[in-house]
């Protein structure tokens, strides 16, 4: 009984306490109000952040509204990103339909571009991107064949304050029957977000689409799925682009200025912290760090006490002069993480020093950026001078050389940026036949290494030297035959005997391109090596098809009327083994620039200067057959087949574009010349005056497609030891080369 009374008493006490707090609080507040009113004071809640009556005591309202750096916490930014990109965990395995790409095996990587609507506004930069895709070997006009889809809507500039902004993208893409929540779609973007925060918001939901974006933040980058691309200007060239500024083996590796920057300074807002502090490292001697606040319409309203002095100092130095004469170039972030300074520094061989925390560098999946740039920390700006001073000369030269390799391989044109993006995605789709890091980060670059040919480094001629690999000791002769066999005394018969006697000859393939059917095997002379006759289908480019019958690394390409000695063949082959990445042969030609016609010219005059070695008698690696057939566009190969001309010039263009080196001419007993056609056969093409005019046109057409002139002039010729020296011919290894 006593226990029950105790519990009842405790329950009553608890109820009293609850009633006291519930009603007592209100009574206390009312009493407090009465007291304060009595004293003549007004009680107000904590001021709102936009309340102008209170905030001026602490800071100007405009400053708070334009300083997004303190407006959002990292958690808020992540939440905002998740709200925008609901598929932020996308990977190729979860958000990509591989079956669309494997319907046709290796040929399954095709890209479809949605047709643009009538009166659709497309920026110059996006037009260049679409042109690059449309002219690539991956383009298809049939969406049923496509593995990847690209929007016809311009998505490059998603800043709502920009004149290039395209509204209602979300509604339009949802109307595409193939959109499928963005799966297998590729979206390009250079600018996202708007003032003041410049977030990653594109203004529409990309869904499961792959994002090829500039200024990507590492927090938002989806590894193995998205592609980080560089920020480039509307004036960036469509094709080719300017070469890098570094001369080979430049010494000394350092330039006049150690470190430089010249650019805008932001007084407030995102990106202002770093650029406002750059003046601290400027010494006006070997470190030049210049900023100006003279930009924008209202810069004078917001200028600070340092603006006038900075503007005067800014005008003292020329940007191009600094760029050409600086060893390191600061690349601080702007409003966004990326900057135009990045590509400018790469081209100028000015080692980029990055001050952009969180920036996912362009093509980071495949490029080893630590071999080309120095990544700094925005918070440790004052340590940058001592850091770059500590870099040794050998390292400086290596970094500068790597900037040139990357610039010319991936960044010098919109074409290269777009094709690199596509090739990265293609390597992900066909991971079993993809390039490795070495291929992407060494000459000639990943775009010129086709993994369908091979994924082994030792199968490519330009890797032999670095791997310490020697090319094979045999070659395959491929003879291009266009004349019917009417006599045993035709030049091709003697040529077969000469080539087959070479101790290095493994086999001979006759590519039959005559209008008449090939003769039976009994019509051909007996030879010590296998002889194969293959139908060339009367196409001039068939001589460069990757014929399965070619088993050796070296190919000796011959016209049917080539006049050579066995010793000449042997010597040229030994020279090729020392230069397996180049064309090595006899008949030289050259190109030149005609300032009056403002066009390239072609000449066959015999001079000491040459840039072309005709493939009518030349050695090269068989990989160039594959590259010729699968890398060059169909339009160029069609031109060659239609005119039955210029295939040798096109092959020289291709090899020089890969190596950046000229071909090699070797000594020859007699000058290479074309013989008159036998009776009863068609006249040779070079007897036609139109033949030379066609070659003039070809060289300009090829240069237009490459976007620059890849051919390189040379005066280098290799002769045998003791060649034409005043010693007995009997003492010479290649004695037949001197006999008339």
UniProtKB/TrEMBL annotation:
Catalytic reactions of this protein: 3-O-{[(1->4)-beta-D-GlcA-(1->4)-alpha-D-GlcNAc](n)-(1->4)-beta-D-GlcA-(1->3)-beta-D-Gal-(1->3)-beta-D-Gal-(1->4)-beta-D-Xyl}-L-seryl-[protein] + UDP-N-acetyl-alpha-D-glucosamine = 3-O-{alpha-D-GlcNAc-[(1->4)-beta-D-GlcA-(1->4)-alpha-D-GlcNAc](n)-(1->4)-beta-D-GlcA-(1->3)-beta-D-Gal-(1->3)-beta-D-Gal-(1->4)-beta-D-Xyl}-L-seryl-[protein] + UDP + H(+); 3-O-{alpha-D-GlcNAc-[(1->4)-beta-D-GlcA-(1->4)-alpha-D-GlcNAc](n)-(1->4)-beta-D-GlcA-(1->3)-beta-D-Gal-(1->3)-beta-D-Gal-(1->4)-beta-D-Xyl}-L-seryl-[protein] + UDP-alpha-D-glucuronate = 3-O-{[(1->4)-beta-D-GlcA-(1->4)-alpha-D-GlcNAc](n+1)-(1->4)-beta-D-GlcA-(1->3)-beta-D-Gal-(1->3)-beta-D-Gal-(1->4)-beta-D-Xyl}-L-seryl-[protein] + UDP + H(+)
MF GO annotations: glucuronosyl-N-acetylglucosaminyl-proteoglycan 4-alpha-N-acetylglucosaminyltransferase activity; metal ion binding; N-acetylglucosaminyl-proteoglycan 4-beta-glucuronosyltransferase activity
Topological type in the membrane: Single-pass type II membrane protein
PANTHER family cross-referenced by the UniProt entry: ACETYLGLUCOSAMINYLTRANSFERASE, EXOSTOSIN GLYCOSYLTRANSFERASE 1
Pfam annotation, one family: Glyco_transf_64
Cofactors named for this entry: Mn(2+)
Gene Ontology biological process terms in this record: heparan sulfate proteoglycan biosynthetic process; ossification
Protein function: Glycosyltransferase required for the biosynthesis of heparan-sulfate.
Gene Ontology annotations for the cellular component aspect, listed alphabetically: endoplasmic reticulum membrane; Golgi apparatus
Pathway: Protein modification; protein glycosylation
Lineage: Eukaryota, Metazoa, Chordata, Craniata, Vertebrata
Gene3D superfamilies on file: Spore Coat Polysaccharide Biosynthesis Protein SpsA, Chain A (3.90.550.10)
Protein's name in the database: Exostosin-1c isoform X2
Annotated organism of origin: Betta splendens (Siamese fighting fish)
